């Protein structure tokens, strides 16, 4: 299916190229992301292809390490929301009644509250550990998936073959495993890909505000440090120190979103 879809194939190749670019930065780059390896604010050269920051730390090594930390957080958040959102949506759509009313109420709360201000407050109280960031982001990410799965479950349950299966004595577990999961899991996986990109943006936002581990490498922390550097926009430093993490953040999240949208278009034809 992927081989015959040129747009999806191109997006996957583009993301793979970006992945290899960052993988090289954490495996073969001779400079580390934590210690100075050159002069302060060196322009891009053959030695430092994306220059150095104010402490002399290689920018390419930093954005490469930040990519994999962001992906780790994104995948962890997607896994949690995959489970919670999938279960809540399936339970709401399949059981119905008071269960559906309660879960739908919770979904609407999660989707309607101003997420960033609440995440900031929770980040202040819970602390800057990576696990806390993952839990905070996941707590506000499952609602969208649950709503999609609920709607899909209700649609499937109205199909004639579901009613026929019930009339022949098919149990709830049989109907879920045999008829619902094969149609729901692809949609759940596709939605989880979009969650990865969303989680990366949220983590970078919290890191930019100083609510992430300051010792960890993050695009948000890099952007925050660069923008706080006095007079950066009156110099050429922003061209490599600030734009590198910004472009990395935009490119990675945009490609994930486009891949998710294209997969959704294919599977919902």
In a few lines, what is going on in this structure?
It contains 11 helices and no strands. With 269 residues, it is mainly alpha-helical. The model has no long low-confidence stretch (mean pLDDT 89).
Task: Write up this protein.
Helix 1 packs antiparallel against helix 11 (243-267), helix 5 (130-139) packs across helix 8 and helix 8 (172-208) runs parallel beside helix 9 (219-228). The protein has one domain: MetI-like (MetI-like fold, Orthogonal Bundle), CATH 1.10.3720. The two termini are 13 Å apart. It has helices spanning 6-27, 59-95, 97-112, 115-126, 130-139, 142-157, 160-167, 172-208, 219-228, 238-241, 243-267. The chain has 269 residues and is mostly helical. It is elongated. The longest helix is centred in the N-terminal third of the chain and has 37 residues, at 59-95.
How many strands appear in the DSSP assignment? 0
CATH class: Mainly Alpha
Number of domains: 1
**The CATH topology, please?**
MetI-like fold
Q: List the secondary-structure elements in sequence, H or E.
A: HHHHHHHHHHH
Task: Output the CATH homologous superfamily.
Answer: MetI-like
Number of helices: 11
User: Distance between the terminal alpha carbons, to the nearest Å?
Assistant: 13 Å
Keywords:
0% strand; 269 residues; 11 helices; MetI-like fold; mainly alpha; 73% helix
